[in-house]
Amino acid sequence: MTIDTTPLVADVVPLVNVADSTNKKVTVGNLTNQINVKQYGALGDGIYISDGAITSGTATFTSATASFTSADIGKRIVIEGAGSSSATLATTISAIGSATSITIGTNASTTVSSNAKAVYGTDDTTAINSAISAASNGDTVFFPVGLYMISSQISIAGAVRLLGTGLDYATAGGPIRKGSVIICAASMTSGVKLGTSLSTSTGLCGASMEHMGVDGMYLATNTVQTGSRRNYIFACQIWRGLTYGLNMTGQNGYCSFSIIGQQGKGTCVLIPEVDNKLYNNQIREGLVASIEITRATPMIQGNHIFTYQTGAGWNIYIHDTQNTDGEINILGNTIEVCTKHQIYIVGKASQTMGRISIIGNTFYEVSGFADNTYSIVALDVTASSTVLNQITVMGNTFSPQGGGKWKGLVEKIGSGGTLRGVTVTGNAGNGVNAFASGFRPESMLGNINEVSGVIKLSDNGGVSTQSGNGSTTAFTIAHGLYDTPNHATVTAGSSAAAAAYYVSWDSTNLTVTFLAAPANGTNNLLLAWRAWL
Q1: Using one digit for the tens of pLDDT, what is the confidence trace for 86-125?
Q2: What is the pLDDT of residues 251-261, one digit of tens each?
Q3: CA-to-CA distance for 69 and 482, rounded, in angstroms?
Q4: Is residue 236, in this structure, part of any structural domain at all?
Q5: Are residues 418 and 474 in the same domain?
Q6: N or C, where is the chain less crowded by C-beta within 10 Å?
């Protein structure tokens, strides 16, 4: 038996030669039973091009910076924007014209001149799947630095970890091109699927992926999909699914410290199953939504969330949930760049959804939006007999920095159903035209809103000191609320004010009207007051 002592990564112990098929597991640092995909024939030799060109109806692709050779014949190539209706074109290299020109296996349907982005390389699907098949529960399948082209889905049964070398943040406008990256190079349901089954039945589960990049190239319906239970994604970059970046079909899944980006198509994250968590991610540039939720009990916490700017959908879109679904927690996120409702909650006909907490988030908008058209939180009860119940909006801050004002901090839409138990408390910021639009919450206290330099409150109170003159019976108190109060109280705080009176109010003032004019005196009327919406 020969020994290959060339390390595949830093501090790898000597490896048994690839020819020895009985032992391809190694130890890296404190990690035991690590399987290197390159030992199973994966090359990770993908090459990124940013200056390609191809003409519709032709199969000649050129790049001034390329170095094509005869060894590239048969390799996979994906060309952004060259397919039908500017979709991604996925094909193979069939001939080499020169170092800067190749013939591909499929004619382009769309012309892309001078700046076509493309990736080409060896199809590593079989080698990667072989490495994963060799892994036992608790093993790690390691991807050294490289771009790994795949032509069909990579599936991880469970209790196995995919591990790469880090993610590439600076790739806006193109493929992921640094670190350990899986590139989808053909149409497929999912680029990577973690978990044995799409069902929620018991069985193998707990697959994980760390420090990896996966680019769906708008060819995979889901760039990454979870199944079964308790799959874990950490510090990964999940990029450009045709419909979804991350589809959390499994239960009890976790995704944290990752970047999930769509660059203007589809939805970044779909949560169609219960008990999934998103912690401390950047979730960016979805067109339909940043996060779409259709089942109960997700935890959305500490994320930076933003859509694809003008014309995009909602940052968080909650809809079609089952009867009694709820316990949706949206906590401590930074939510921005959305020209529609930031959070849009839609009730389902004849169904009840509740226990939704929107607490401690920061909302702001830097790109500008239509004034008085959309709200920060929209509660849609258009559907017949729907009930949205126990909605708490508390401790959030908000600011539309790019111009325009939100219609409301919270808005009711439609009249087919019912809102019940809505609390709007302790929110502060500027640029909402109302704390609540279209309805009055059961509780609305401690909110602050600045409009055109004037502070407007949801509740206010104090002591008004005024002077009687023996003839005036009506005394006004400016309440400082953004709208006409729903409730107000005034209590006499001095003997001169301890007489019969009644209180009325409008959008600006409380008016205390005495049945008999108070006696003449300086500051002899003390009126303790409180008003709230």
Answers
A1: 999 999 999 999 999 999 999 999 999 888 999 999 999 9
A2: 899 999 999 99
A3: 70
A4: no
A5: no
A6: N
Q: Which residues pair with 530 in a beta bridge?
A: 461, 489
Asked if residues 95 and 102 have their Cβ atoms less than 8 Å apart, the reply is yes
How many separate domains does the chain show?
A: 4
Which CATH number is 499's domain given?
A: 2.60.40.10
Contact predicate 503/476, CB 8 Å: no
Q: Which two tokens stand for residue 116?
A: 């076509």
Report residues of the chain scoring pLDDT below 70. 1-32, 168-176, 197-205, 309-311, 322-326, 366-368, 402-403
Phi, psi angles (nearest 5°) of residue 76 = -75, 145
Cβ(48)–Cβ(119) under 8 Å? yes
Domain of residue 107, CATH code: 2.40.30
Integer Cα distance of 480 and 510 in angstroms: 10
Pairing assessment for the beta strands 525-532 and 459-466 based on DSSP bridges = antiparallel
Report the distance separating Cα 73 and Cα 121, nearest Å: 10
Final residue before a domain boundary, out of 121, 155, 181: 121
* 448 lies in the same domain as 509: no
Q: Which amino acid is at 273?
A: E
pTM: 0.87
Chain centre distance of CA 157: 27
Among 78, 105, 121, identify where a domain stops.
121
The domain in which residue 514 lies consists of 460-532
Q: Which residues contact 427 (CB under 8 A, 6 or more apart)?
A: 393, 394, 395, 396, 397, 398, 409, 435, 446, 447, 448
Instruction: Report which residue type is found at 295.
Output: R
